Amino acid sequence: MNEAGAVLQSRGLCKEHGQGQGLVRAVDEVDLDVPAGEMLAVTGPSGCGKSTLLHLLGGLERPSHGEVWLAGRRIDALSERALARLRRRSVGFVFQAFHLVEELSARENVELPVLLAGRSPRAARRRAALLLEQVGLADRARHLPWELSGGQRQRVAIARAMANEPLVLLADEPTGNLDTAATLDVLRLFEGLRAAGQTLVIVTHDERVAATADRVVSMRDGTFVDDTRLAGRATGGLGDMLGLGE
Ligand SMILES: Nc1ncnc2c1ncn2[C@@H]1O[C@H](COP(=O)(O)OP(=O)(O)OP(=O)(O)O)[C@@H](O)[C@H]1O
Where is the ABC transporter domain (predicted)? Predict the structure, then answer.
């Protein structure tokens, strides 16, 4: 199974937690196709299964049933070792709480995945310098996370997520801890990545964030209840969308 052009797919994807009376089906028979280069937003109320879906798609959790395919390769049944390698090299993760390594500088945080992928310190340094430049933080490379604002931390986290040129960037409430100006910075970065052909899946309950996507799927109780392609999403300025003057 590999629909032409889909970089990320799921079929009959299910995740159950607990058992008996306490059984929760966090993700319930989800079929998803994310074409290469698409920016997809996943929305829905708290507890509807958005984060669980993202974890399944990125190989952070294993499904109870169903399949996940990344670039034509079935990943849900990979060994732990193969899955860890895939997460390091082929998937970029961005989290609401940033999850930077507090003891490492911005530059070292971005270098780390490159080193873990087996590349040389020199290559890691070059890649980190380029990415920090692209997220507008070249002058903060030596700063530790606590010396950065929330928005700056998230930009470092995005640079880190892009370190190994992932097939797909998965973001879980990436603007959930940010003020409007920092949200705008993050959305501009996502917009730039999308323009460069990056595939993105963004979990958000911020409608303004969802409005910047190519397509929005809405979840309720573990399933998709709506799937809408946003025509003309690229026409309005992000600043207008967020109620700011650009
Ligand atoms: N490890 C777990 N054990 C038991 N139940 C879980 C576990 N993880 C998630 N759940 C349950 O699965 C459902 C989906 O949770 P999930 O975190 O995916 O929702 P969400 O839409 O991301 O919510 P939010 O927007 O609040 O982050 C919820 O009912 C949650 O309580």
Answer: 8-246
Which residues does a 6 A CB cutoff place in the pocket of ligand 1? Answer: 17-18, 24, 26, 44, 46-52, 205
Nearest CA to ligand 1 atom 30: 47
Q: Which atom of ligand 1 is nearest to the CA of 55?
A: 18
State the DSSP H helix or E strand holding residue 39, giving kind and residue range, or none if neither: strand 39-43
> How far is 98 from 107, CA to CA, in rounded Å?
15
pLDDT in tens, 65-119: 999 999 999 999 999 999 999 999 999 999 999 999 999 999 999 999 999 999 9
Give the residue carrying structure tokens 């992928």.
117
- pTM assigned to the model: 0.93
- 91-101 CB burial, b ≥16 within 10 A, e <16: bbbbbbebebe
SS3 category, 87: helix
Q: Are 14 and 7 in contact (CB under 8 A)?
A: no
Domain boundaries, the chain: 36-57+79-228
Query: What is the CATH code of the structural domain delimited by 36-57+79-228?
Result: 3.40.50.300
Please give the structure tokens belonging to residue 224.
């998709």
Assess contact for 184 and 134: CB atoms under 8 A. no
